[in-house]
Specification:
The chain is α+β, with helices and mostly antiparallel strands and 456 residues long. The protein has helices spanning 2-11, 14-18, 21-46, 54-79, 85-89, 93-109, 111-142, 158-174, 188-194, 215-226, 244-247, 249-258, 313-316; strands at 145-146, 155-156, 183-184, 230-234, 259-266, 273-279, 287-288, 299-302, 317-322, 325-330, 338-346, 352-358, 372-380, 383-392, 404-409, 417-426, 438-440, 443-445. It contains 13 helices and 18 strands. A hairpin with a 6-residue loop joins strand 5 (259-266) and strand 6. Helix 1 (2-11) packs across helix 7, helix 3 runs antiparallel to helix 4 (54-79) and helix 10 packs parallel to helix 12. The longest helix is centred in the first third of the chain and has 32 residues, at 111-142. The chain is elongated.
Length: 456
């Protein structure tokens, strides 16, 4: 407790920013037990003569038992590194017992040194206790709302409490108690509050390293066996970790192919949003357009006067998987300009272009807020024709935190060669980001009723 309080105080002060004390404390927490146990082993070796004394033999074996237990746990830590320091701390009980034994021995042999240790220890305790009181007061003020669920018993921020309540109510209504519920990548609290199990033990929490080389396939197979119809996806994720799709590419591709966003759970607050994915019932129809090649004559950024800027094509366009569709991410241009993707296309008979637009969920709460304008034009021999246009502002408009479908009737250009011009523009420079705008990879289909039309 003392170490935790002192570490919290250090990490919230100038000491963390200006000195190496915080780093030293963490290293002491990790390497200190090894030094302590080495010293304890030497102490036991020196006291091995106690085995010949009946009165001291029992105390020697008790200390040896605790020392052996502590040593085994430390060996375990070094062979199987814990995922964080909290998991390591739960192994510290025998270390603390040994500290008491060694402190008692030190107290009896070194009166002056013992008094110094006590004075320093009391001083540190007073500092830690005072800071702990400060933490209790501030945390109670910030985390003021009890989670309104039967299985919960903690307080969190009011926005987070509302989000969790809505999400758990939804999962309980949409799944049976015995039905496995995939929650990805790091939200095991949903399993507990919903009283649902994960489909596979490896999907409980997914870290940027794989415990098994075939982790993706094991989770996919478990979801298929369970016929999982619902997935809860935590879009917030951990800061400092790479994007989920980068270290579980096969699993992410499976989600893109098999699931679609059913609901977005979001409330005011930084990065406070989770996605409910439902298995796609009707498979897509039509044919996807081939991926464009980033070339200067195919994608460019232009200023308000139409003059092209010097941005490289590779920085403007990327064909990737987003949550949860394959997309052409087209980086917008700010200051009255726009980014243009030019796609030559021979229009087949009775054709409709199906696509959708969105900003990436991790961009919804970027500050400062900015909107993105999407425009699709068809260029033929007579000029350019705007066939789709929409502005998204997900930071300030929760209704924009979703995919927006678009269907464009191309029958008037049947049998002709045209150029499809997909463009994106943004208000502020922060919007010049590949996460700020994407078009779902378009599909060419024939409308069931033959009427075509434009919709959003």
């Amino acid at each position: 407790i003392l170490f935790t309080a002192l570490t919290a105080a250090v990490f919230n002060s100038w000491v963390f920013r200006e000195t190496a004390i915080a780093d030293t404390l963490v290293k002491l927490f990790y390497y200190g037990p090894v030094l302590l146990l080495l010293g304890g082993g030497w102490r036991l070796w020196k006291r091995r003569g106690a085995l010949d004394q009946t009165a001291c033999r029992s105390a020697f074996f008790r200390e040896l038992t605790v020392w052996s237990h502590a040593s085994a746990l430390i060996v375990l830590v070094w062979l199987q590194v814990p995922q964080d320091y909290l998991h390591m701390a739960v192994l510290y009980a025998p270390i603390l017992i040994l500290l008491v034994v060694y402190a008692d021995d030190f107290w009896g042999k070194n009166r002056l040194g013992s008094r110094f240790v006590v004075i320093v220890g009391v001083g540190l305790f007073i500092v830690a206790a005072g800071y702990s009181v400060h933490l209790v007061v501030s945390l109670r003020e910030r985390y003021s709302q009890p989670i309104p669920l039967a299985r919960a018993g903690v307080r969190i921020t009011p926005p987070a409490a509302a989000l969790l309540s809505d999400l758990v109510t939804y999962t309980r209504a949409e799944t049976r108690p015995e039905e496995p519920l995939p929650v990805m990548p790091y939200a095991p609290l949903i399993h507990f509050l919903s009283d649902r199990q994960a489909p596979h033990r490896l999907s409980y929490i997914m870290w940027p390293f794989s415990e098994f080389p075939d982790r993706d396939r094991k989770i996919i197979d478990a979801m298929e066996r369970a016929n999982s119809q619902l997935v809860i996806y935590d879009q917030g994720q951990f800061r400092g970790f790479p994007p989920f799709e980068e270290y579980v590419p096969d699993l992410f591709r499976y989600l893109v192919e098999q699931f679609e966003i059913d609901r977005v759970f979001t409330h005011p607050g930084p990065a406070s949003h989770m996605l409910a994915l439902r298995r796609t019932q009707a498979r897509e129809t039509g044919q996807r357009l081939a991926a464009p090649t980033p070339q200067p004559d195919g994608v460019w950024a232009e200023g308000p006067d139409g003059a092209r800027r010097g941005d490289s094509a590779e920085s403007l366009l990327r064909t990737v998987d987003w949550p949860f569709r394959p997309v052409w991410a087209l980086r917008p241009t700010a200051a009255g300009g726009r980014t243009v993707l030019s796609y030559p296309f021979s229009v087949p008979r009775n054709a409709t272009l199906e696509t959708a637009i969105a900003t990436h969920p991790r961009f919804w709460f970027r500050f400062r807020p900015t909107s993105t304008t999407f425009v699709l034009e068809v260029e033929d021999a007579t000029g350019r024709h705007v066939v789709f246009s929409k502005v998204l502002d997900p930071h300030r408009k929760p209704a924009d935190r979703r995919w927006h479908e678009a269907s464009v009737d191309l029958r008037r250009w049947a049998g002709k060669g045209v150029v499809l011009r997909f463009s994106t523009a943004t208000q502020a420079e922060i919007g010049e980001n590949l996460d700020a705008a994407a078009w779902e990879v378009p599909r060419i289909v024939s409308p069931p009723d033959g009427t075509g039309g434009l919709r959003d």
